[in-house]
């Protein structure tokens, strides 16, 4: 089993990976929170944005703003070119064979719902099954629960083992001849586990099923190559990878997208409309009804440029280094239990933990007093969190601008909070 990302293509990078220089690109990192320097460790929820992405938004609204695909005037042509260029950048970023396979959506959740409401609606029937994992975000659970109920299909789970890894010992019996879809997270937003996507893709294809990957936590942090992973659908959100909120991506195999019915109806997605009927535009427009999120798509292109300059291999290496360091430092905290794989090379830069005596919300609030932002709660993965006999956990998650000294501050902050609560 290969749990590292090495099944994907390497990505070089043209800029030196210098964290101090990276940090200077992020205006928000200069903020003081409760009188302390901001230490932002909630990157799995959303990342901060570099000046280059913010500038792309203001440049667009100050210089280019116009509707796309409709005008013959200069601004509309420029807006269309920039919008489509961003699509091509995203396609290259994940090594998609064709830019038309990249559909702009609002976020990962909408991408997943789109597949559930179109492909799955047509292809899943009574007695079929859909296989997901026990470590999914609600966004990759609830659409399939709803679909299974509607279709009288079965929803099956691959378990998460005690070691935090996906248990695929019974893969052949769970993914069987009635499986129509395997929908799995590439990297768990709670455990940090990097899952063996290619192995599951091979099994899904062997039984004639389709595989969809929730890449919300992988595309921002490691090289992801849809061809070497051999997947059929891949979903992610720009806001977790330096881009703006309100825009996400559904990538799908051209032949599958071609066969799928539209998700929404309206302007831009049609080829011809009569008073009686309508037919559909070519890809990708068939799935992009109405005026799209032009500015945010273009800014997503700027985010991709930024990550490409650093090199996704380097992004991953930096986060691995931080994860190894964090796990080592956390091991000195006697009352803290880290969730997920013990081996830092089998996981990404997400460290969720449970404190034996301090509730995560108290811990999160106390750390905020020290300027440290972590996430606390169920992390939109209630079934997984409850499997640890708790209702909430704390989570520190890293990105390109985080440093070892910030992890030291987190560990000291937890110690300080322990001192306060033991008084
Ligand atoms: C693994 C995973 N899937 C899906 C989502 C949902 O992403 P969004 O809220 O951008 O739709 C998240 C967000 O935290 C996530 O971590």
Written overview of the protein:
This protein has 423 residues and is of the alpha/beta class. The chain folds into two domains: 5-49 and 311-421, Aspartate Aminotransferase, domain 1 (Alpha-Beta Complex); 53-308, 3-Layer(aba) Sandwich (Aspartate Aminotransferase, domain 2), CATH 3.40.640. The protein has 14 helices and 17 strands. Helix 3 (74-93) packs across helix 10 (294-310). The longest helix has 20 residues, at 74-93. The chain starts with 18 loop residues before the first helix and ends with a helix. Residues 1-10 have low confidence and may be disordered. The structure holds pyridoxal-5'-phosphate (PLP). Pyridoxal-5'-phosphate binds at residues 44, 107-109, 137, 139-140, 185, 189, 214, 216-217, 237, 380.
